[in-house]
Amino acid sequence: MALLSKLFSRPTKPRAVLIGLDGVPYTLLETLIAKGVTPNLGRLAAAGASHFQQMDATLPEISSVSWSSFMTGTNPARHGIYGFMDLKPGTYQMYFPSYPHLKAEPLWDTLGKRGKRSVVLNLPGTYPARPHEGVLVSGFVAIDLKKAVHPPSILPYLEKMGYRIDVDTSKAADADFLYRDLDETLAARERAFDHFWTSENWDLFVAIITGTDRLQHFQWHAVADASHPNHERAMAYYAKADAVVGRLLDRLGGDDLCLLMSDHGFCGIETEVLVNRHLVSGGFLKWEKDPPDSFADIHPEARAFALDPSRIYLHRRGRYPKGRVEEREVPALREELKAFFLGLEYQGRRFIKEVFFPEQIYEGPEFDKAPDLVLLTSDGFDLKGNPKKAEPFARTHFTGMHNRHDAFLLSNRPLPDKRPHIEDVHGLLLGWIG
Amino acid sequence: MANGNGKGFVLWFTGLSGSGKSTLSKMVEERLLERGVPVEVLDGDEVRTNLSKGLGFSKEDRDTNIRRIGYVANLLARNGVCAITAAISPYQEIRDEVRGRVEQRATFVETYLDCPMEKLLERDVKGLYKKALAGEIPHFTGVSDPYEPPAKPEVVVYTGGEPPEQSCARIVKTLEMLELVPPVPGDDYGADEEAAVAARLRDLGYLG
């Protein structure tokens, strides 16, 4: 009987599973595997470089942009998400681009048109939830669980089982609280993974663990330093996340594709870099009131400003109410800014590794919303768009920061023989499921 | 002004026959009326019966038809109305010409209804594609006449697969983003929720 049921339950169609470990760097994962902290990830990685690769994330290398590129297989000039926040057209008023602003088609919509069902759990950038063929539980920055689920009929189950959208980051500076909250949130997350794995008939199963990113923002020092008092607690969290992954891996059918990935890399912070303050010092930015209350306090003579974390916008006439930069001034101003940023130093060291013009990194119908320059730093230099801080460099309670080059991609099947970019994952999944 | 900023606008649908222009124009019209936005729909078929009676489907006649629709839409938009046009409008050049006129005084929102040909053939409610493919209808856009997809539309909706409600929501959301229609609190982020989002981002070191 057992054999019979096994035969009947064997998938007759190609299915794919995508497990996300938000922010986990390739180089850290190599170490965790080598130390035996994450044996389940280790068993996949043991197949070698054909199965485990370092991956590039988007620019900017933040979750809302990277996961949008993952889900659509496109760059920001196609999916339209350039950051966690933007300014409303023709104003200095902030808004928060979210799922309704996504301009390219996410993978599950494409699959839905082909009659395929997708379960998508805790994926950042999918709030408020909207219908697709299958199930969605939105991830960061979801606020209200009622608006974070589709279909609505799954809400009572999630509420009853104590599902948590995220850890309480307002209290995460307290390490004891953070580690306890991380564990509880992960446990609730796994209950949801379990439930939907078995209760839904799916073709694509997307399960994202975001606690890794939260741990690393607040506790990178403990992750990286084996002598730190919290190091073992940090390692224990990776081990628990690995165990969750392992239990999913154990359920895979022989025909299933399983990919694991992070949406960006991570590293320690040497200093935060307040980009707008540097622009003020360089004579590019001026405030009517300094420090400003918001971007609305920008001076008409300001030529450029920065939005989190690394986007530089020219204060163009016609695009911003007080903007005076004319179109003919743009090429020279971009070059001037590029030279300025590349020359910035911290304790005698230059830290801006590259300055990109948008045409070098973006293409698509949303190109006109792209920043005029995008900065890429050396590891350790965390760019901030905060306009209010008076100092050009600062340290806070955060100890970890994102980087672009150190995301990872891991697979139970051989990967293409080229360095992957996060946009490629979409094609791998779509190609498998068909 | 009822639409929130006193500016009228033209919501210009373009897409092949059967891609859902009439259906979506009615849906968007209802959503906008609910929000107190004055709306008029200029449906391609109705315009041909009234405003453009006698015109055929040569490129010249098609251009004349689109110019007339654009003219009326522009008049409406200049007077604070949302003019929704639902005609195939296959040529980029003429759409751009209308855009140029409208943008002197109002906003032009080009909306591309992207629907694959196999889906259109599968639907073919009126049997038009079948006839066109059999050579019974000359100058049929997408079969024997060209269709030029917009190079840079403000909105693209995928009417071949996504439900019309989803397409409609995306269009209305874009109009909100452009501040052409007032948002409905709770539809996306209300003020309280926006504050909560900002707080969450600050907790992770963004915004400052």
Structural notes for this entry:
The complex is a heterodimer of chains A (434) and B (208). Chain A is 34% helix and 19% strand. Chain A has helices at residues 2-9, 26-34, 39-45, 63-72, 76-79, 107-113, 155-160, 175-199, 211-224, 231-249, 275-281, 330-343, 358-361, 422-433, and strands spanning 16-21, 52-55, 86-87, 94-95, 118-123, 134-138, 149-150, 204-209, 257-261, 265-268, 271-274, 304-307, 311-314, 345-346, 349-350, 352-356, 373-377, 381-384, 393-394, 400-403, 407-411. In chain A, helix 2 (26-34) packs across helix 3, helix 8 crosses helix 9 and helix 8 packs parallel to helix 10. The model of chain A is unreliable at 1-11 (pLDDT under 50). Chain B is α/β, with parallel strands linked by helices and 208 residues long. Chain B has a five-stranded parallel beta sheet with strand order 2-3-1-4-5, with helices on both faces. Chain B starts with 8 loop residues before the first strand and ends in a 5-residue tail after the last helix. The mean pLDDT of chain B is 88. At the A-B interface, strand 4 and helix 6 of A face helix 7 and helix 8 of B.
So what's the overall shape of chain B? globular
Q: How far is the N terminus from the C terminus of chain B?
A: 36 Å
CA-based shape of chain A = globular
Query: Which structural class matches the secondary elements of chain A?
Result: alpha/beta
What portion of the residues of chain A fall into strands of 2 or more residues?
A: 15-25%
Average of the residue pLDDT scores of chain A: 94
Q: Between the first and last Cα atoms of chain A, what is the distance in angstroms?
A: 32 Å
User: Uncertain regions of chain A: pLDDT < 50 for 5+ in a row?
Assistant: 1-11
- Say how many strands of chain B there are: 5
- Order of SSEs of chain B, N→C? EHEHHEHEHHEHH
Mean pLDDT of chain B: 88
Radius of gyration of chain A: 22 Å
Helical/strand content category of chain B: alpha/beta
Q: What oligomeric state best describes the polypeptide chains here? A: heterodimer
Cα-based radius of gyration of chain B, to the nearest Å: 19 Å
- Order of strands, main sheet of chain A, comes to 2-21-9-1-8-5-6-7
- Please state how the strands of the largest beta sheet of chain B are arranged side by side: 2-3-1-4-5
As residue ranges, the low-confidence spans of chain B are none
The main β sheet of chain B shows up as:
5 strands, parallel
